[in-house]
Amino acid sequence: MSKKTAIIITVILAIIIGLIALLGYARNAREERQADRPAPADRNLSTSSTGTARTIEVDGRTRTYTVFVPNGYDSDASYPVLLFFHGGNGNENVDLPTGGRGAQILKGIGMIDKAEQEQFILVAPEGLDGNWSDGRGTTEPERAGVDDVAFVRALMEEVSRDYSVDDARIYAAGVSNGGMMSYRVGCEMDEIAAVAAVVALLPIPISDECSRSFPVMGIVGTEDPFVSFTGEGPSRQVARWTGEGIVTLSADATMEIFARNNSCDPEPTITKLPVKVEDGTSVEKYAFNNCSVERALEYYVVDGMGHGWPPKPSPLERISGPSSGNIDATETVWDFLSVHSL
Length: 342
Description:
alpha/beta, 10-stranded mixed sheet
């Protein structure tokens, strides 16, 4: 064997040994990272339709939230997170149409199935006494000084620690009182990539302070007796239960603020969507142009719709008004949120 050949063989062997060592180091590092995380049983990872209820202490109060992890969850991957805020339960005498907590409402609107299909982690926080401190100043938690934004920050620290989270794709969505809470966390938390609110408008008390730029989508009904499309407050019949005055902006004023925050043209392009069901409702899409990011602001104005999660029928239509078969809120929410990231 020539000296030159011996040198070449030595170099090749050195390269092979180096690669083997590198692969071993990478494997050990990966195993160490996985070992640092609690075992699945300890973390209560769940792939069931009921999710895993967890508790956390925030400001001296025990708070609860539920985590839904999609089937096939892989700790080496990273997953978007959707924080979903339930609607207000009202008082003990009335079960409002957007009430229900955790798995109850999420299963009913098909959001758990959507999380399975699209492979995202779904987190359902629970409001104290079924309501959120959403910025209106009218709910019991807010009157009691509950800081729900602090609660959301704390639970997201836990979720990000215990699950494989894509930190650039943390979203907030909600319905009614929960939709207003979604607006609030979007305004106050830089970690939120985008917000979707159904039958909810921006609370007046926090509207002047909301200057953060983040993508927003909303679905609102022109005949909503709880959250007035024109900003006139709830109907007289609804006010008997809610006791609330004019506490949210109109739909137009809400869109105006988010158009300003996202540097959009002030006037949207309005498109009438095809009627799929002849149920007395129709949908117009308000799409704002030349914003700081693509699809930064979209609203769906549903003429003839009341208060609920379309197309699901309302259990109290005589109070909340009709639903609409011409828009699917679950599909529309995820279609919008999923395209955005920080």
